[in-house]
Amino acid sequence: MPQLRSGARRACLRSKKVDKAADPVGSPAVLPPQGRARRRGGVVPGSGRGNKAAAKGRGRSASKHRGKGLEAIDLQIHLPYNNLPEPVVAGEAVICTAHKDLCLGKAADRAAILRMVGDMDKFAVAEDDATTSPVPERVQVGNSPEYLTGKKLGKGGFGQVYVGRRVSGGSSRMGPDAYEVALKFEHRSSKGCNYAPPCEWHVYHTLNGCYGIPSVHYKGRQGDYYILVMDMLGSSLWDVWNSVGQAMAPHMAACIAVEAISILEKLHSKGFVHGDVKPENLLLGQPGSLDEKKLFLIDLGLASRWKEAISDKHVEYDQRPDIFRGTIRYASVHAHLGRTGSRRDDLESLAYTLIFLIRGRLPWQGYQGDNKSFLVCKKKMTTSPEMLCSSCPAPFKYFLEMVTNMKFDEEPNYSKLISLFDGLIEEPASRPIRIDGALKVGQKRGRAHVNLEVSEQPKKKVRLGSPVTQWISVYNARWPMKQRYHYNVADSRLHQHIEKGNQDGLYISCVASSANFWAVIMDAGTGFCSQVYDLSQVFLHKEWITEQWEKNYYITAIAGATNGSSLIVMSKGTPYTQQSYKVSESFPYKWINKKWKEGFHVTSMATAGNRWGVIVSRNAGYSTQVVELDFLYPSEGIHRRWETGYRITSIAATPDQAAFILSIPKRKPMDETQEILRTSAFPSSHVKEKWVKNLYISSVCYGRTVC
Predict the structure, then answer these.
(1) With contact defined as beta carbons under 8 Å apart, do 9 and 504 qualify?
(2) 150-165: per-residue pLDDT in tens?
(3) Are residues 551 and 699 in the same domain?
(4) Minimum mean pLDDT range among 71-75, 139-143, 231-235
(5) Are 40 and 579 in contact (CB under 8 A)?
(6) Is-contact 291 174, C-beta < 8 A?
(7) How many other CB atoms are found less than 10 A from the CB of residue 461?
């Protein structure tokens, strides 16, 4: 058995005496409060408007409790957080959001976009031909010539793409006078339009003429459809990859890399990120034309702004785990986690695209089911650049390392990224892809050759690191007070430590578990006047919780063990007026977001194995809350939240993920200092060092992080 350890900090100032009339604490047995208890919190699911069993036991009818503000305990098992509402798909591309006010669209520009990849990355498209009116046989929008609608090139989440041929005239292969064009139809009732012009139109209008982006010559509405008239292009890189035996030569991938980087640089300079870089969206020009070796980036349905149009400031950082945008196979890790899109995400998707073209397969292909995005994201974060690029030349590994190590608002060094591939680029006559844009970048900036072996690495890693399980402890600045900790505590010793703390005027402020042993933090600054706890073999014992809610106790700390047991602490003297909780197989962000809208805030979290338990309370004293969720450790997100006034108020972690709730208090503390530590062992020595600085443990957990 691990050695039992304890520690205590005596207050430098005289602490307040505990009210002698307070209920004794330290035993699972509960002394009933004086007077009639008001009904609080939740009731057992299926009990209708009230807890009939409890009412019957008191000799009162359940009907007397109608309208008392009861909150049902929600024990429904959630699907993984990546199983989001209203998925919309083009090929593998998906956008999922629970927010109807987001103006986002997704559609196919080529038939190749709809070709499914060997690992069955398939989704149902949002619309069916049978549910919409047929596309017009003849098209004329704005001041365009009249076109006959020809064969269908492809279909995506919202749109359909057809060949359009001029009824008369047309003397060129490209441009407004082209005799053959691509016609993109989107039905006005599709989610991409919602009875208004698609948001993609605005992006094309802003970018029209941008290097590497196909031109839109005409647009307008005809009948039930919004229509774009665009340049006709050639094969996609997906088609090319298939034609060369599903393994592209590194020198060709290098040409694609430098030209794609230059296209993204031009796109980013206009204030947009593409949001769905992949082989199907990178096309060559028409065969036999002057542009047949020129690369184009198509499909702006998921494009979004990284820079505000008016102020030119970078958009604000945020994380919404219920929103995923892009294609699962090639999406950046940040896109999987619901973080605001920025320039780094396009470059990370390009890195996965290049590695796929060379290797022919990525390690995360083959996952299926509702938790596919969860598993893919986890695999991406645990696959090192060395492993992923083991069969690729060194420049591709360095490129991946650089782009996955970028900060949210960091400006990419496009010239340096392009120069990584200089050694793989052949003479102009042998180049399978034109690199006009990359050459212009080099001439403009005087690009120098990068020595890959001694290339300067970023000073601070944003994401790279090895996943480990550690103790995570959070410390807040407080007035001097008494605090005590116990760790490696077996079930049989809990009562002894808690009872001794109560006798000394201390109450439990937070609890945690590691290897089925408990860690208990007790201090004199909780403000509680009475406390009870329950050690149960099930994760969050609902009957016991409901019973204590009836006695005006509220949940103030929870912990779960890997064997499924849990420790629940409930207290009197809190400001809470109502509580609810959720037990889920995945982090229940959608449920939390729903509760935020109802006036609740997260006040406690815990995990038991891979299960999550989240407590929300009304009147918690917070004005707003956010979540930082990661498969490693969200260092960048936490520091950005700190800079905007948020402080960590709850933490929990499984062997796979760590979650942090950060809050802005309604009443600003005099000293907002907060520190966080990650240690392989319980931080007993660090705690004592923090006490000297009047920093006290406010939250602690054990689980996934990074070293």
Answers:
(1) no
(2) 999 877 656 889 999 9
(3) yes
(4) 71-75
(5) yes
(6) yes
(7) 14
184 is in an annotated binding site: yes
- Specify if 179 maps to a domain: yes
Q: Backbone dihedral region of 361: left (phi > 0), alpha (psi from -120 to 50 degrees) or beta? A: beta
Strands (E), 313-353: 324-327
648: three-class secondary structure by DSSP: strand
Residues 6+ apart with CB under 8 A from 318: 339, 340, 626
Q: Is residue 119 part of a domain?
A: no
The percentage of residues in the chain with a pLDDT greater than 90, rounded to a whole number, is: 64
Residues 6+ apart with CB under 8 A from 454: none
- What integer pLDDT is reported at residue 557 of this predicted model? 98
User: 442 pLDDT band (50/70/90 cuts)?
Assistant: low
The mean pLDDT value for 648-656 works out to: 96
435 shares its domain with 564 = no
Angstrom distance (rounded) from CA 402 to CA 382: 17
Distance CA 120, CA 26 (A): 56
- pLDDT for 277: 97
Task: Please check whether residue 62 lies inside any domain of the structure.
Answer: no
291 has catalytic annotation: no
Mean pLDDT of 161-183: 90
Pick the last residue of a domain from 181, 200, 230: 230
Q: How many CB atoms lie within 10 A of CB 423?
A: 14
Distance of CA 106 to the CA centre of its chain: 20
- Beta partners for 8? 484
Tens of pLDDT along 527-559? 999 999 999 999 999 999 999 999 999 999 999
Evaluated on CA atoms 289, 294, 295, 299, the torsion sign reads negative
What the block records as the tokens of 78 is 């959630």
- Segments forming the whole domain that contains residue 653: 468-706
CA gap 610, 615 in Å, rounded: 17
pLDDT at 199: 85
Closest CA to 640 of 616, 612, 660, 617: 660
Mean pLDDT, the chain, as a whole number? 82
**DSSP H helical ranges for 8-133:** 52-57
**Which pLDDT score is estimated for 188?**
86
Q: Select from 459, 468, 501 the least CA-distant residue to 482.
A: 501
Residue 28's pLDDT is what? 34
The verdict on residue 155 lying in a domain is: yes
pTM of the shown model = 0.80
Across the range 297-325, mean pLDDT stands at 93
CB 71 within 8 Å of CB 580: yes
Say how many residues make up the chain. 707
Tens of pLDDT along 405-439? 999 999 999 999 999 999 999 888 778 898 887 76
Which residues, in sequence order, are bridge partners of residue 111?
none
Number of domains in the chain: 3
Tokens of 601: 């805030």
Give the torsion sign (CA, 145, 148, 153, 157).
positive
Cα–chain-centroid distance for residue 189? 29
Catalytic one among 109, 276, 299, 346? Answer: 276
